[in-house]
Design goal:
Distance between the termini: 16 Å
Strand content: 35-45%
Helix content: 25-40%
CATH topology: TATA-Binding Protein
Structural class: alpha+beta
Radius of gyration: 14 Å
Shape: globular
CATH class: Alpha Beta
């Protein structure tokens, strides 16, 4: 199973974060399948790759440390594919999501940590 993680701290109000985050994931070809307000799960829309390569994104919004203008988000991007190559489909989607979050104009990126 391929699995990549990263976290972001962005300057945005909690009110605007949820909708902006959904728009970012949809722009990366993901469909939101679960949303509780502080946890969001999205799955890559089928059709472009084999079923085992479909990527899932989980986002945990850390409301316990959020302020009125700053929020931390933790991302887990994974699929069932064995990461036999460095540039596998899951890693490509990780790069796409990472770049989309970092470049989103709805918030200001304060910190980005990939791990």
């Amino acid at each position: 199973m391929a699995r990549y993680t990263c976290s972001f701290t962005v300057a945005v109000s909690l009110d605007r974060l949820q909708q902006s985050l959904i728009e970012v994931l949809r722009s990366c070809n993901f469909d939101i399948i679960y949303d509780t307000g502080d946890y969001l799960m999205a799955r890559e829309i089928p059709g472009q790759v084999a079923f085992a390569k479909l990527v899932t994104v989980e986002v945990l919004i850390d409301k316990s440390t959020a302020t009125a203008q700053e929020v931390r988000m933790n991302f887990v991007i994974k699929n069932e594919e064995l990461p036999l190559q460095v540039d596998n489909h899951c890693h490509q989607m990780f790069d796409l999501v990472h770049e989309a979050v970092a470049q989103n104009r709805q918030w200001q990126l304060l910190e980005s940590v990939a791990g």
